[in-house]
């Protein structure tokens, strides 16, 4: 080890059994992107997720901290009870519970999802390093290793790729692909981990010969995630059809709208769009899927950015609408939608009203909300978070009973990127979770005898939820022995505590007669990594009939819709207008022939036909009739 005296920089070099890595630690005061094409907002998101690994909160992340991974509040409680030696380290027995946890699949394909980066880093240090020494890891260095040779060069000098893709995504379907490889999930690095074996690092021939071949193989191998739902979401033809529908560019779409107007006559008083008479009260689907609404409680309809927030916003003036001059506007009669920014809460309530108009069996229906209630760059205030959550839940409870509502934490819920994590602001986490408990959405009443034994302690549904964000409850409105599991993907896919609870609950469902489960998790790639392969049906490896229990796996986050794939994963579209299109979905359970071509199993599969998209032009009043 080399320490440069009198400098703020420390150069650390260490040799592992399979690789040599040099890592530079710098004072962690940077707030602007150190990569030319990476926006400051995305850089901040990566940095926030990275420092969730800083266990002792000293502003640095070490090798052992990275091996621990992102810790939940439950992990923190457990580790606080463990002894620390004179070097400030836990015992090997404690580390072994975390350091040795390696799933059979993981993802190191670069993306702009910060959880993908942190999962790749954790997996890399657990998988590729065997040193007992602890060293400091530099954030900017490993971020550059993560992106590698891939870049995200934008065709426009004044707009980042992530912004262009969020607004339209047309670049992702260009042939050949020239720009925005990472934002379009087209960056191909063979899924390499961050630290790779390189024979040139070894000058001693004898030392090279002594390298364990199995360890060498492990160091250079990567179990890349194939058929990731994000790729389908951004490049599939279905998204072009969705966007065409929104713009009314297809002849059949224009004819359909014209017929609606002629059948309906003039647009109803106070409405912007004609109500599609053929849809009213005929939709028999009982499942409602919503995600990424990103409610802006301080809405300014004159704004020009995806964050359109009036000045002097506080917790005392939430859910107001003010124009660019600060004048108060009536939310129902004067507050128009920009069409490109995080919306006011009225857009969410209009979607619920639209669902109620179209639903034939509303009393039998359930709502899956898959994360991101808060606007981007939300106010770090427990009062602001709690007020938003109670307002959203109150609007849900107008139509649904608490046992029919399933809410999932996203990265824009509570403290940014860190709800229920050890390094997240506990007051902000409590502000997000308390409304769910107080309204009965998360409860011990439905499963009073369900207990989880984790690290020698028993937890019920509520106590486990309060420390991890994870919970399971019955899908009692639909059928006996049907359940929903909600996972907190802000913990990543490498947290053994949450994984214990998940696998325990999956085994529980397997043991029930005709047991089935739907699983909700905000980040698509994290959710995909968390599900044990024995429960997934695929053409290459059909699930055994006893393990074929999954109704569907649902995520959000990327603001694009990806229809249900052959393994049962679905990515829901965003409801915010900071997206190529705003939509939610309605679906139901059906019998489908499985990948072996013989068995039939019950599944929830969503396609374009299940979407209700907001089709109004920009700068119009909110209208529930426009969800079509």
Descriptive notes:
Helix content is 29%, strand content 14%. Strand 16 (516-520), helix 18 and strand 17 (550-555) form a beta-alpha-beta unit. With 628 residues, it is an alpha/beta fold. The strands form eight sheets. The chain has a five-stranded mixed beta sheet with strand order 11-10-5-19-22, with no helix packed on it. It has a five-stranded mixed beta sheet with strand order 14-15-16-17-18.
Write the layout of secondary structure elements.
Blueprint: E1 10-15, E2 20-25, H1 40-50, E3 61-62, H2 63-68, H3 73-80, H4 92-99, H5 114-128, E4 136-137, H6 139-147, H7 161-167, H8 205-210, H9 213-220, H10 229-235, H11 237-247, H12 251-264, E5 287-290, E6 298-299, E7 320-322, E8 328-329, E9 336-337, H13 345-358, E10 366-369, H14 382-397, E11 405-407, H15 426-438, E12 452-454, E13 457-459, H16 461-468, E14 471-474, E15 482-486, H17 496-510, E16 516-520, H18 524-530, E17 550-555, E18 569-571, E19 583-587, E20 589-593, E21 600-604, E22 611-613, E23 620-621
Parallel strand pairs: 5-10, 6-7, 10-11, 15-16, 16-17, 17-18
Antiparallel strand pairs: 1-2, 3-4, 5-19, 7-8, 9-23, 12-13, 14-15, 19-22, 20-21
Helix pairs in contact: 1-5, 14-15
Descriptors for this entry?
about 625 residues; about 30% helix
């Amino acid at each position: 080890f080399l320490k440069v005296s009198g400098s703020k920089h420390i150069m650390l070099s260490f040799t592992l059994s399979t690789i040599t890595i040099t890592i530079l630690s710098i004072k962690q005061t940077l707030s602007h992107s150190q990569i030319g094409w990476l926006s400051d907002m995305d850089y901040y998101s990566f940095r926030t997720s990275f420092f969730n690994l800083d266990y002792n909160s000293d502003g640095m992340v070490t090798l052992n901290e990275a091996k621990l991974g992102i810790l939940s509040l439950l992990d923190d409680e457990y580790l606080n009870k463990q002894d620390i030696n004179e070097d400030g380290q836990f015992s090997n027995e404690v580390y072994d519970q975390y350091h040795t946890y390696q799933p059979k699949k993981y993802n190191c394909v670069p993306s702009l999802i910060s959880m993908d980066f942190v999962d790749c880093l954790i997996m890399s240090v657990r998988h590729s390093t065997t040193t007992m020494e602890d060293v400091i890891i530099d954030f900017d260095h490993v971020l550059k290793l993560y992106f590698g040779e891939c870049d995200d060069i934008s065709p426009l000098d004044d707009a980042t790729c992530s912004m262009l893709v969020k607004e339209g995504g047309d670049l992702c379907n260009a042939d050949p692909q020239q720009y925005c490889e990472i934002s379009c999930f087209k960056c191909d690095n063979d899924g390499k981990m961050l630290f790779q074996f390189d024979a040139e690092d070894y000058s001693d021939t004898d030392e090279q010969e002594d390298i364990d071949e199995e360890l060498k193989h492990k160091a250079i191998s990567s179990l890349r995630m194939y058929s990731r739902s994000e790729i389908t979401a951004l490049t599939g033809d279905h998204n072009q059809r969705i966007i065409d529908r929104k713009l009314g560019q297809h002849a059949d779409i224009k004819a359909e709208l014209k017929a609606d107007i002629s059948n309906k006559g003039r647009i109803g008083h106070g409405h912007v769009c004609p109500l599609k008479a053929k849809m009213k009260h005929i939709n028999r689907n009982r499942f409602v899927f919503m995600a990424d609404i990103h409610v802006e409680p301080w809405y300014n309809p004159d704004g020009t950015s995806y964050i359109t927030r009036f000045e002097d916003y506080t917790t005392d003036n939430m859910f107001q609408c003010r124009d660019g001059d600060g004048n108060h506007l009536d939310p129902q009669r004067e507050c128009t939608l920009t069409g490109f920014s995080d919306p006011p809460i009225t857009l969410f309530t209009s979607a619920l009203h639209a669902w109620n108009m179209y639903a034939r069996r509303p009393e039998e229906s359930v709502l899956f909300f898959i994360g991101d209630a808060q606007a981007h760059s939300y106010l770090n205030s427990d009062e602001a978070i709690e007020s938003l959550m109670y307002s959203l839940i109150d609007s849900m409870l107008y139509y649904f009973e608490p046992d029919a509502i399933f809410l999932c934490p996203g990265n824009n819920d509570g403290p940014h990127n860190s709800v229920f994590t050890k390094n997240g602001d506990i007051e902000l986490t409590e502000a997000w979770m308390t409304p769910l408990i107080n309204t009965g959405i998360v409860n011990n009443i439905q499963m009073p005898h369900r207990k989880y034994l984790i690290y020698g302690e028993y937890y019920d549904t509520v106590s486990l939820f309060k420390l991890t964000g994870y919970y399971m409850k019955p899908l009692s409105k639909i059928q006996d022995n049907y359940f929903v599991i909600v996972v907190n993907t802000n913990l990543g896919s490498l947290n053994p505590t949450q994984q214990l609870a998940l696998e325990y609950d999956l085994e529980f469902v397997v043991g029930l007669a005709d047991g089935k489960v739907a699983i909700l998790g905000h980040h698509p790639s994290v959710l995909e990594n968390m599900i044990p392969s024995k429960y997934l049906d695929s053409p290459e490896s059909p699930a055994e009939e006893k393990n074929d229990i999954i109704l569907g796996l649902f995520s959000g986050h990327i603001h694009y819709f990806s229809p249900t794939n052959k393994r049962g994963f679905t990515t829901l579209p965003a409801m915010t207008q900071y997206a190529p299109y705003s939509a939610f979905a309605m679906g139901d359970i059906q019998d489908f022939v499985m990948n072996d071509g013989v068995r039939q199993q019950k599944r929830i599969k969503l396609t374009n036909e299940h979407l209700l998209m907001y089709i109004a032009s920009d700068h119009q009043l909110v209208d529930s009739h426009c969800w079509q």
